[in-house]
Automatic annotation (TrEMBL):
GO terms for molecular function: DNA binding; DNA topoisomerase type I (single strand cut, ATP-independent) activity. This is DNA topoisomerase I. Its EC number is 5.6.2.1. It comes from Seriola dumerili. InterPro entries: DNA_brk_join_enz, DNA_topo_DNA_db_N_dom1, DNA_topo_DNA_db_N_dom2, TopoI, TopoI_C_dom, TopoI_cat_a-hlx-sub_euk, TopoI_cat_a/b-sub_euk, TopoI_cat_euk. The active site is at residue 544. GO terms for cellular component: chromosome; nucleolus.
Length: 586
DNA sequence: GAATGGACTTGAACAAATTACG
DNA sequence: CGTAATTTGTTCAAGTCCATTC
């Protein structure tokens, strides 16, 4: 309770606002509650369901064992899910095929079931061609047809894409129900290929306020339930059939409820900044503890702090891909090197983290940490837990005692934001705007590397790099040509000393200058792109970097905010754009 | 405490829209 | 102007963390 109250007080003091009028801002402040409720009034139109299945035209055939076969509608629908994915690597994977086939058979009639017994004898290529042709046809549609679709989408957005929460019209994040399809788990997921069933109104729980106009279910259907729970922020939910977890319809990041939460997150990280030295001293001390659980806790916290690792909750074995975070690291995920090249006490990490993204890092650690790790590894098998006396619950309980509201993920936020701030200070030159933006991207990149935000190198990367290089070469040729011309013009002017030739010199000088700038811009672009090959900047920008740092930097360096944040990002960070001055310190 | 459920944030992949280019 | 490259937006899976129950 004290925690909630203190947050409320912070909210009140800091005049949280976007581009609202003063009167509205006061209203916002009055709308914040101390009892854990999230809203007083909530009205919306309910979700938009996936369009019903449209059977294939008869000419599109499915072949079993070389012979055409007409499928019942339910079996055909599931078959189309597979047919659409034929070019995808998924359909070559054993688990995917096995899971798909098992679930597909459940949708078959008994005749189909007895006939179709081997997926390898199924030929979906005709269906696959059909869908390719369809999407090609969609691309070839006339301007008018495309415009019509766009207008229909816009109408749907206007009708279902917004809700009223308290006194504001807010954008909904995901108002469409997920369509049925084949589950695409990441990495080695044991459930990949399973059928994600179609969601019906009878599966949906609606959440809205009692005194609002309740959303109407589609004709002839009913909601599973209509409830009025203002302790939560979601508008609708349903239970998904793959993991049995709940999915939600929630508001867009631009909404008050998400913005305030985001702001709180950064305020918590700033509070960590004030006491991080104390906490670091504490865990360094704990490396010497006579209790094993405390040493483990302290080493794990060191990793979370230094390497920005995720907490690492336990996962149910066999239900998901085998991935780990800090607390769930196993012996097989680290290697210890007392000496490596010219460094001492090197730890090599190699494991699959969230989304089965590989984390690989070699890092020298302090001797005490190294000795502790050796101790933790004693008498263990590769598949044993590295921190056998620790889990995220224990760790977070400890962190809560060190600072109000502190959890493992706050370190990620804190280290990301503080790194951006430091890097911006270090890297920013008083150069041209493109050079400043390169500096910003480099600072952003340092954070993305810290957080291990990777992306698959774009398919066309090599080619686009080459194209850019060609352009640079061309520009260089242009430049030397322009310089020659300038020289000639100067000589001409020296000879004639007339106004006309003087003007010509000026014109040529300008031309050289322009080309130099263009060349510079291209070179900067090439550097930026090369450095960004496998790094994804978006995730840290959206989730880890206190936007006020970026806003302040833009103001200080005279960089228009539009160069850093696009429209959506400006909407999400409206509160920060409004709040931060050029001297803002994280 | 361990297991489970629930709510919410984070994350890469993919699709659509927009911009750059020949 | 049409096409290709790039950026922006959407999707939905996969985490974190907290509350509840036994």
């Amino acid at each position: 309770m004290t925690q909630i109250l203190s947050i409320q007080n912070i909210l009140k003091k800091a005049s949280f606002s976007t581009d609202m009028k003063e009167s509205q801002r006061v209203m916002w402040e009055e709308e914040r509650y101390t009892d854990g409720s999230k809203w007083r009034f909530l009205e919306h139109k309910g979700p938009v369901f996936a369009p019903p299945y449209e059977p294939l035209p008869d000419k599109v055939r499915f072949y079993y064992d070389g012979k055409p076969m007409k499928l019942s509608a339910p079996a055909e629908e599931v078959a189309t899910f597979f047919a659409k994915m034929l070019d995808h690597e998924y359909t070559t994977k054993d688990i995917f095929r096995k899971n798909f086939f098992k679930d597909w058979r459940k949708e078959m009639t008994s005749e189909e079931k007895s006939k179709i017994t081997d997926l390898n004898k199924c030929n979906f290529s005709d269906m696959n061609e059909y869908f390719k042709a369809q999407s090609e046809a969609r691309k070839q549609m006339s301007k008018e047809e495309k415009q019509k679709i766009k207008e229909e989408n816009e109408r749907l957005l206007q009708e279902y894409g917004f809700c009223i929460m308290d006194n504001h019209k807010e954008r909904i994040g995901n108002f469409r129900i997920e369509p049925p399809g084949l589950f695409r788990g990441r990495g080695d997921h044991p459930k990949m290929g399973m059928l994600k069933r179609r969601i019906r109104p009878e599966d949906i729980i609606i959440n809205c306020s009692k005194d609002s106009k309740h959303p109407k279910p589609p004709p002839g259907t009913k909601w599973k339930e209509v409830r009025h729970d203002n302790k939560v922020t979601w508008l609708a939910s349903w239970t998904e059939n793959i993991q049995g977890s709940i999915k939600y319809i929630m508001l867009n990041p631009s909404s008050r409820i998400k913005g305030e939460k985001d702001w709180q997150k950064y305020e918590t990280a700033r509070r960590l900044k004030k006491c991080v030295d104390r906490i670091r001293n504490q865990y360094r001390d704990d490396w010497k503890s006579k209790e094993m659980r405390i040493r483990q806790r302290a080493v794990a916290l060191y990793f979370i702090d230094k390497l920005a690792l995720r907490a690492g909750n336990e996962k149910e074995e066999g239900e998901t891909a085998d991935t780990v975070g800090c607390c769930s690291l196993r012996v097989e995920h680290i290697k210890l090197y007392p000496k490596m090249d010219d460094q001492e006490y090197v730890v090599e990490f190699d494991f699959l983290g969230k989304d089965s993204i590989r984390y690989y890092n070699r890092i020298p650690v302090e001797k005490r940490v190294f000795k502790n790790l050796q101790l933790f590894l004693e008498n263990k098998q590769p598949e044993d837990d590295l921190f056998d006396r620790l889990n995220t619950s224990i760790l977070n309980k400890h962190l809560q005692e060190l600072m109000d509201g502190l959890t493992a993920k706050v370190f990620r936020t804190y280290n990301a934001s503080i790194t951006l701030q430091q890097q911006l200070k270090e890297l920013t030159s008083d150069d041209s705007i493109p050079a400043k933006i390169l500096s910003y991207n480099r600072a952003n990149r340092a954070v993305a590397i810290l957080c291990n935000h990777q992306r698959a190198p774009p398919k066309t990367f090599e080619k686009s790099m080459q194209n850019l290089q060609t352009k640079i070469d061309e520009k260089q040729n242009q430049l030397s040509a322009a310089r020659k011309q300038l020289k000639a013009a100067k000589a001409d002017h020296k000879a004639s000393h007339d106004d006309k030739s003087k003007k010509a010199v000026e014109v040529k000088r300008k031309a050289v200058q322009r080309i130099e700038e263009q060349l510079m811009k291209l070179q900067v672009q090439a550097t930026d792109r090369e450095e960004n090959k496998q790094i994804a900047l978006g995730t840290s920008k959206l989730n880890y970097l206190d936007p006020r740092i970026s806003v302040a930097w833009c103001k200080k360096c005279d960089v228009p905010i539009e160069k850093i944040y696009n429209k959506t990002q400006r909407e999400k960070f409206a509160w920060a754009i409004d709040m931060a001055e050029k001297d803002y310190e994280f």
